[in-house]
Amino acid sequence: MLKSMMTAAILGVAAMTAVPVAVQAEDLTGKTVKFGAIVPASGPFAEWGRANTVALKMLEKQVNEAGGINGAKMEIVIYDDGAKPAQAVSMLRKLADDDQVLAVAGPATSSAVEVAFPVANQLGIVSVSQNSSKPGVAAANRPWGFRNTVDEAKLARLVVPFFAKTFDVKKAAIIYDAKDATASAAGAKIFPQILADNGIENLDADTPISFNTGDLDVSAQVTKLRSLQPDAVVLSADYSQAITVLREMKRQGMKTPVVGSTQLMSSAILAAYPELPIVAPTTFFAGLDVPAVKTFTDGVTPLMRAEKNLPGTIEPSLFDANIYEIVSLFAQAAKEAGVTAAPADLAADRTRIRDYMASESDFVGLGGKVRFAADGDAVKSFFIVQAKDGKWTSLETACSSPEADACAQ
Question: Given pLDDT bands bounded at 50, 70 and 90, which one contains residue 157?
């Protein structure tokens, strides 16, 4: 039996009956099980945060309509950190101390995670990022810090050689956002090393091409890119900044294939330069031919498009899927690990959630099985996708772990 509470909820199961486990589940009827979420619903990544919120509200409704958690109502307390690290810490403390939630989904950005995860360890509360993929961030903040993402370095090591072979790349140029933690790490360190490892000439190795989050004019940087005449462009930036680069590339007539990280995964990227081959890794995309993905996408897409502060053509991204999986796993943990939802047991309940997440190996997410490695990062399947004809198309499937059968269903 698939042990995914999430799958049970979205398929409309009338009651989520427990799989036999060592801990006897309590009847929590009349109680409320609270989880928290920190999303960037304002600021440069507002689209991500607002879409996250829609996905979480849908999940909350689904779980409660399916009987809740052992009879208890599930409540998700959602706060906006504006992608500001200090605000993320404040929201984490508020969720832990004032709202007394059992676990927190978020924060999103690596910059926020780097300061929030140490606080989660101090407070003794699980914090799981839906976006962060800068190498080593969770590993440095065990045992309470987790990420339902894959380290960008692991992904790039597989994506770059595949991309190079597909587009016959012998020389490339890198452009990156120097102000964003993940984009900077990938653009200044990860991608240059991987290009070298694959025998690809890095044309701007001596004079890196970069810009800063919020820059509206990148014409000078793109002019330099074009002058280098690369076979490919490595674009390391989140979607909101990447579209500025892509639009300028289109304006200047650059038709060079682009490769990047998971930060490119947004429907906004599809519209920025539809004619250009853009390749990226992802653990989820709306067109993935999996029943659970179709059910999730069909359910959440109209809700997102009905929001006045989201684009009318938006589709759920991997970060929406990630946060949906995170809170689904929280709910499954609360159900199966003996959570009491009693105020006196708050610390013990938080520890139960942490221990369950660290050991659970049969949780089935939207794109397949999900578990957490010792470093706190997710082990899951991922896909190499290309933007084509206004949608993402899968080119290749791989696993984030080299272990045999690590991603087997």
Answer: very high
| Tokens 């590339």 belong to residue | 249
The amino acid that residue 377 corresponds to is D
Q: Is the pLDDT of residue 348 over 60?
A: yes
- Summarised one tens digit per residue, pLDDT across range 379-394 is 999 999 999 888 899 9
For residue 41 the two structure tokens come to 């619903």
Say which DSSP state 39 is in.
E
Q: Can you tell me the distance from the alpha carbon of 54 to that of 100, in angstroms, rounded to the nearest whole number?
A: 22
Closest to 211 (Cα-Cα) out of 233, 234, 190, 236: 236
Give the number of other CB atoms < 10 A from CB of residue 298. Answer: 11
Which residue type occupies 124?
Answer: G
Amino acid at position 151, single letter = D
Name which CATH class applies to 5-150+288-376: alpha beta
Q: What is the DSSP letter of 366?
A: S
The pLDDT tens digits of the residues spanning 102-143 come to: 999 999 999 999 999 999 999 999 999 999 988 899 999 999
**Per-residue pLDDT, 297:** 97
| DSSP label at residue 376 | S
- pLDDT value of position 353: 98
Domain 152-282+384-399: give its CATH architecture.
3-Layer(aba) Sandwich (3.40)
Alpha-carbon distances, residue 136 vs 80, 122, 145, 188 (angstroms): 25, 19, 11, 16
